[in-house]
Amino acid sequence: MIREIIGLVIIISINLYIHLAGIEMNLLFDLGLLISGAFLLGELFHRIKLPKVSGYLIVGILMGPFGSNAIDIRMAEDLQFIDMITLTIIAFIVGRELSIKRLKKDIKAIFIYTSTVIIVTFIAITLFSFWLYQVNPFMGPQSFRNTLIIAMIFGFMALAKSPLTTVALLKETGAYTRTPLLILSITVLKDIIVLICFAAFMALLKGSGNGGMAKTSWEIFGSFLIGGGAGALSLLYLKFIRRQKLLMLLVLAILITIISKALHVDNLLVAITVGFIIENFSDLGEEFLDDIEKIATFIYILFFAIRGINLDLNAVRNTWLIAVILIVMRTIITYYTLMVASKIQKDPPNIYKYGWSGFINQSGVTLAMALIISNTFPQFDALVAICISMIVITDIVAPPIFKRHLLKIKKLEEEI
């Protein structure tokens, strides 16, 4: 622990000196400081039983535009491509966790939990948000239709979750027992369903007819199509060449990132599909995962540190109260919805007693949805700010709680 603290003090001192002296450094140097600082704080957090990803996020915040500004907005934009590549690689891992063999064992439970959470949470948060807007019309007076649209958008936002954080915490805790894997499966399936429904909802609101629906359909189903093609090519490479698999993995992530942007598909869905295909249609899935594991820590550091840089703390200042109210209500609804579903499924209480914390962290899909809203309805800027506040707050608060609960679940289920 002493070494981590000394290392952090040195990096903070260098950062402060550069900032106070007004010295302009290049992006590569700042990226080196970011990675080193994130690694050290992550290790320090791990020693005190906090998630490493929280340490990575905090270093990103401290070095970003809303902290010391060592990495300013222009530099943050330059890091977006790296961010997308790391997201793609982590999504490979998410896809790999969706083993058909394992999913078959829990298919009934996954269906019950996913459908119950989607239906109950969406209706409850939509109704609550509609009432809340009557009490606090934060965007001024709106028609019944617009108020309902705002409420439904919050309903969709409440369903979105970050499977990337779940995967990172599963790796850190080693909690690969039934309930954590069930949480991951529910999260991924729920996010895919929500993304499809939300995209269709926004296309209908834009009133662009068949053209809008065609574009939306391509963004979703085109992602699966391209992911299927990339997965098939990966299988051929792994079967016949099998050399430089790590290099192949990095090249594949870069190509998926570039092609997804060029063809207007979702690189997260593309990469999940690739991981899913390799896991279920090849006996080389374990080798594939081993190659990812070699660079996993570095990838997690980059991804979560860059996410920390991009967290908009200004949005939190003006909208934190509404965001907190919605997060608390969403948490309560999630807890009791999981309780009802577990009674139907006749499962032990682990899924709702501790598993609720696995559905709180947002980011990922939520951020993508917020960007869609911003582009479609520029007048809903206050709503977007609330969504970003929810992302910032849950990104910081949720991982420590979820990690603690994962360790409890792991202990309980390993004793059975």
Which terms summarize this structure?
0% strand; 2 domains; mainly alpha; 18 helices; Na+/H+ antiporter like fold
Rounded mean pLDDT is 83
Count of extended strands:
0
Number of helices: 18
User: What is the level-2 CATH architecture name of the largest domain?
Assistant: Up-down Bundle
Portion in helices: over 70%
Model regions low in confidence, pLDDT < 50 over at least 5 residues: none
Give a quick account of the main beta sheet: strands, pairing sense, barrel closure: none
Q: N-to-C terminal Cα separation, in Å?
A: 34 Å
Name the structural class. mainly alpha
Rg is 21 Å
Mass-distribution shape: globular
Q: Proportion of β residues?
A: under 5%
CATH topology of the largest domain: Na+/H+ antiporter like fold
The number of distinct structural domains comes to 2
What sequence of helices (H) and strands (E) makes up the elements?
HHHHHHHHHHHHHHHHHH
CATH class placement of the largest domain: Mainly Alpha
Task: Describe the fold and architecture.
With 416 residues, the chain is mainly alpha-helical. The chain folds into two domains: 2-78; 86-414, Na+/H+ antiporter like fold. It has helices at residues 2-21, 27-47, 52-63, 73-78, 80-96, 100-105, 107-135, 144-159, 163-173, 178-206, 209-240, 245-263, 267-280, 285-310, 313-345, 350-353, 365-376, 381-414. The longest helix has 34 residues, at 381-414. It starts with a helix and ends with a helix. The mean pLDDT is 83.
